[in-house]
Amino acid sequence: MPVVEMTSHLYRYFPQLQDQEIKVPAGSVAEVLNAINELAPGFSDYILDERGALRRHVLISVNETAVVDRATLTDQVPEGGTIYIFQALTGG
Amino acid sequence: MANSILLGTRKGTVIIDRNGSGWQPRSILHEGIPVCYAARDPRDGTLWSSLDHGHWGPKLSRSRDGGKTWEDVLSLKYPEGARYIVKYLPTPDFDPEAPAGEPEYKDATVYKIWNLAFGSSDQPGRIYAGTIPGGLFVSDDGGDTWELNRPLWNHDSRGGDLFSGDATSENKWGGTPASIDYGVFEPGIHSVVVDPRDPNHLYMAASTVGVMESNDGGESWTVRNRGLRMEYQPDPEAEWGHDPHFMAACPGQPDHLWQQNHCGVFYSSDGAKSWKKVSVPEQGVHFGFPVAVDANDGKTAWVVPARADSERMAIDGGLFVARTNDGGESWQALRNGLPQDNAYDIVLRHALDVDGDCLCFGSTTGNVYLSEDRGESWQCLGNNFPPVYSVRFG
């Protein structure tokens, strides 16, 4: 099962995800995010807009490759892969 | 008499409590998160903060225990099919030589939940939220669920019903270039007024749009910009494109409305059927963002004037509040207790409030001032707050 790594900023809103290895079934990025949302209801609202598209300042990468399909999140997360969820950092 | 003041700031929500004869701020809430509006629902005491996350999208946060605990409200979303016509504002990448030939349509996403207004006691649970891009959302269950007001979203002035097909007319709603720092250029609803006599009688105001009125609970909307002037347009009296920065009504005399507009202070005594410019530029009363109206006397209002357009600072380095008691015929500059040198404060549209004889405002310089005598004298409640976006008694 793929592993999920995320920016520590998100643990503030979803403390139940902190200090644990997050493993979810392989599939599209959308499916992986749905699975995280099952573990932490409301998670998707922080990552995605109401269209299901990735928010502007959020970056998701599968292993070392940034996802291409930011609108419908069809990029695949393979078995044994790692999905990283980051945010851009901006000024003061 | 209100016993607390809510600040929405660049770094969180601040609650300042009346403490005997003084005022004491609590530890900051929503620490580090920009809060563009914070207010207390007077009907049930619920506290609301509109979080303006840079990365995670705008969220409403609600507290039903006076600010001890807060919960996210995630249900304010544009429905499937909510589209709008994108306006081409003078952004750095705008090419006047090659304007788009066809309208550009965009799926709506909430960029900012800019303002909240609470319904009357006849409609418990009714809350309005004004958003960027230009949505008026309505909740009838205290914020658990929200619906977009479609008659306003689909108004002819915005191109008609884009849910069901392509636009049939021109978009007359401008954008909000003042928020260019955030990269948001869409029209924003910053003011919602509910008539205390009739909860189905509503007004809304939006930047570079103007004022609209509904007499049927939001089923239909009529433009109410007569008498407004915009000096930046070839036709200053055109029907659309006016730029109210904030609009407020007198609760006791709801036909008396005020707006601090980009192009001056405007007053209406006939329910926005007509507006009268009541600025006195030679006294400095002209440009600014907020306006507050007395609860009982519709002719009494306060503004915090500033220098326009490109400077956007206090006038001549001195901060003052201007008050009129006669519908804008004359203005008094109230300076007692406010800094008169080296002040560069700007008071944004939601950052001045009145409650009885008390007034409070906060600036983007992080200064908060309170008057308990209708503006005659001011005391400082603190100089080192984060930039203040909203001030509301609660």
The biggest beta sheet of chain B, please?
A: 4 strands, antiparallel
Uncertain runs of chain B: none
Largest sheet of chain A: 5 strands, mixed
> What structural class do you assign from the helix and strand content of chain B?
mainly beta
Strand order of the largest sheet of chain B: 3-2-1-30
* Overall morphology of chain A: globular
Give the helix level of chain B as a range of percent.
under 10%
Radius of gyration of chain A: 12 Å
Distance between the termini of chain A: 38 Å
Regarding quaternary structure, what we see is heterodimer
How would you sum up the global shape of chain B? globular
Number of strands of chain A: 7
Sum this structure up briefly.
The complex is a heterodimer of chains A (92) and B (394). With 92 residues, chain A is of the alpha+beta class.
Description:
The complex is a heterodimer of chains A (92) and B (394). Chain A has a five-stranded mixed sheet, with no helix packed on it. In chain A, strands 3-6 form a two-stranded antiparallel sheet. Chain A is globular and about 40 Å long. By secondary structure, chain A is of the alpha+beta class. The N and C termini of chain A lie far apart (38 Å). Helix content of chain A is 17%, strand content 25%. With 394 residues, chain B is an all-beta fold. Chain B has a four-stranded antiparallel sheet, with no helix packed on it. Chain B is globular and about 60 Å long. The termini of chain B are close together. At the A-B interface, helix 2 of A face loops of B.
Which properties best describe this structure?
heterodimer, A: 92 residues, alpha+beta, 7 strands, globular, B: 394 residues, mainly beta, 4-stranded antiparallel β-sheet, 1 helix
